[in-house]
Structure formats: C-alpha cells, structure tokens
Write a structure and sequence with these properties.
Oligomer: heterodimer
Structural class of chain B: mainly beta
Strand content of chain A: over 45%
Largest interface: A-B, 26 and 22 residues
Helix content of chain A: under 10%
Number of strands of chain A: 11
Number of strands of chain B: 11
Shape of chain B: globular
Largest sheet of chain A: 7 strands, mixed
Shape of chain A: globular
Distance between the termini of chain B: 40 Å
Helix content of chain B: under 10%
Order of helices and strands of chain B: EEEEEEEEEEE
Number of helices of chain B: 0
Order of helices and strands of chain A: EEEEEEEEEEE
Strand content of chain B: over 45%
Distance between the termini of chain A: 37 Å
C-alpha cells in the first residue's frame, strides 16, 4: 500500500488568488492523479501527472487554471489559479498501479470567498 | 463520453435488511473498483474487480462485475449502522491503471 500526504488539509482563500496543493507519496510511483470533488458530488479526474513530461488534462480542465508539477517520482503539486467561489471543492491526489487499488490522499478542502 | 451511473443515489434502509447498489457504465472496461467515503474523509478501497464474472466478498458486502452487461453490483447483507457512508464505483479506462471515472455515488443510511 501507499501512504499519501497532502498539504494543506484545508484552506480559505480570497478570490483571484492561487493555492498550491502538495502531494507526497512514501514510495516511487509512475503516475499520480488529481481529482476534484465538488460539494455533495462525485469525483472528477482533473489530470494525470507523469514524471518528466507534461500533465495530461481531462476535458474541461486546462493547464492555465490547474498547473501541475511532477518533479520526481514521489511528489506532485496542483495549483488552483485565479480562484473563484466555483473552485470551492475538495482536491485529492491519488496513486495506484495496474490492476491494483488506487490510494487517495486525505484531500484538501478549499473554500474560496 | 464515458458515463458511470449508480442507483440509487440515496438509500435508507433498516438494520438487518439486504439491498443492492448498481453501477452501470457506458463503454468497455474490465476493471472496476468500489470505494467508501465517510463524511469529511477520503476514500477507502473496498473491492477491486478485474475480470468478467469477478465476485468478491468482505464482511457484509459483496461486489460483482459483469463486463458484458457493463454492470457491477454491491450487495449489502444484513445491514448495520456502521455501513452508513457514501459508496462510489469507479471504472478504469486505461491500460496504465487507476485513471478513474467515478460513479455518481450512493449515499447509504442504515437506520437502527
């Protein structure tokens, strides 16, 4: 299993600002994933973060709004840029492997005011 | 566009009763996962189903996968209050693993 630490666990931010969320894994993984869970909703995949290459974004998500870094095999960041109240969500990172369960961080609860 | 639908969205059941949650998905996949989420918490893995006909059981929960029907079920036997949570199915659409498309979720409340 993998242990995933996310920081911060929660934050309240002013609209128009940016927040960077960190995700640290206790072992090396090839792929990391970022999800968004809007209030009372399911999870939506934002992007796949690969080490050494650009992140791959899902439809409806763009790099300018959600830039991602993946500097090594145990760490990734997701930035939520130019925030608006609609960005208020829980953001989760995830790791996993082929044919195994995925492990999720504890999430970052973001409130934009 | 892949759709993953669960029903029911909300389920209230009495302790001791049985019920089934359904997860339908719209395209071919033979990897399906079930997760549990408690309020304010992250996701806890319940089952990993990797082939047609896969059936797994843990305690009062049993999950199955029919890839031809594009259907997975999560069966609850003799529900207890501790099972109250939101349950998500997730379909893995890639060959690289764990790029999930989540179902809409089923909020389960077990009433004493």
């Amino acid at each position: 299993s993998a242990v995933i630490s996310q920081k911060p666990s929660r934050d309240i931010c002013q609209r128009g600002t940016s927040l960077t969320i960190q995700c640290q894994v206790d072992s090396q993984v090839t792929m990391m994933f970022w999800y968004r869970q809007q209030p009372g909703q399911s999870l939506t995949l934002i992007a796949t973060a690969n080490q050494g290459s650009e992140a791959t974004y899902e439809s409806g998500f763009v790099i300018d709004k959600f830039p991602i870094s993946r500097p090594n095999l145990t760490f990734s960041t997701l930035t939520v840029s130019n925030m608006s109240p609609e960005d208020s969500s829980i953001y989760l990172c995830s790791v996993g492997g082929m044919n195994t369960e995925a492990f999720f961080g504890q999430g970052t609860r973001l409130t934009v005011v | 566009e892949l759709k993953v639908e669960q029903n029911p969205l909300f389920l209230s059941m009495q302790e001791g009763k049985n019920y089934t949650i359904y997860c339908n998905y719209s395209t071919t996949s033979d990897r399906l996962y079930w997760y549990r989420q408690d309020p304010g918490k992250s996701l806890e893995s319940l089952f990993v189903l990797l082939s047609n006909g896969a059936v797994k059981q843990e305690g009062r929960l049993m999950a199955s996968l029919d890839t031809k029907a594009r259907l997975s079920t999560l069966h609850i036997t003799a529900a207890v209050h501790d099972l109250s949570a939101t349950y998500f199915c997730a379909v893995d659409m890639t060959n690289t693993g764990n790029q999930f498309y989540f179902g809409t979720g089923t909020s389960l409340t077990v009433i004493p």
